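Hello, quick one for you while I still have it in my head. No rush at all, and the record is pasted right below.
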Amino acid sequence: MTWQADLAERAKAAMPGPMWEYVETGAHEGVTTAEAGAAWRAVRFLPRVLHDVSAVDTATTLLGSRVTTPVGVAPTALQRVAHPDGEIAMARGAADAGALHVVSSNAGHRFEDLDGDGPWWLQAYLPPDRESARPVLEAAVAAGASAVVLTADTPVPGTKLRPREEDWEGVDLTWFRRNFATPGDVRWAADLGPDDIGRVREAAGVPVVVKGVMRPVDARRCVEAGAAAVWVSNHGGRQLDRTASTCEALPAVAAAVAGDAEVYVDGGIAGGLDALAAVALGADAVFVGRLAVHALAAGGAGEVTATLGRVTDELVEAMRIAGCPGLPDTRGIALPRPATSR
């Protein structure tokens, strides 16, 4: 059994049943979710030789924040169902691993209660009334968020067949969206446009990342509208089923951005070889979602730190064998895969 499978088993045993289904289930048939891991495993490397790899450095800077690993924590909701300490434990675990942590705007803890001393960003959905998002953005920045990740791929939530609404009976969700004045008023804008990048930047006063970018032309539009980074994501297969894998989309998006903004990716990354494939194909950082929630459920902050550390250790080993002493050296060692998104 792999360490990832063992972690998943421990997480499943620790979580309420509907939470496990919430974490694991993709939209509709779950095709995109099921294909994610295989796409990374299909990447093949061309290792470099005759390069000094006695020391390998995974440290990098993401929008001005120094981290010791390019492996960060993607935003996920309902963390307090996975573990009572929820985002507090996730923040502490990521900070102890030297990793970036992205906090969901649906978080179950107040932003000011996050006690990890590492860098963190806020993930945000915009409502139809843009101005109503300002208090949440301002609260996050006041509490230490140094960027806002604008989720752009969710005009409406994709249909998931599990868990059913009645399955949550008996699970306390009263803390959901703790940072909203009206937490039950969940509305998402179906008319997002490039101008919203500037609106969020003005309201928050920090750099804006656009998450959910799969097409090169959309990446350019984001950069031209002021985005500091684009995040290649298909929402873990939880939005439009049969969307291409992020692994397939990443190279063309990175090429379109051409160094004008940072590029991140998530979706099925579960180990150091996946992380190597991602940075080699153009990502400045990679983010884990389900893997981080598994760690949170299985052992709280300590397991989050250990899991991020294990992925990073695997990345170090892979970089060393591939002849890459630093992250920039990985560019070009992965055979390109054909992009299916245009």
In short: The chain is about 35% helix and 10% strand. Strands lie at 60-62, 65-67, 71-73, 101-103, 120-124, 148-151, 208-213, 229-232, 262-265, 285-288. Residues 3-330 form a domain with the TIM Barrel fold (CATH 3.20.20.70).
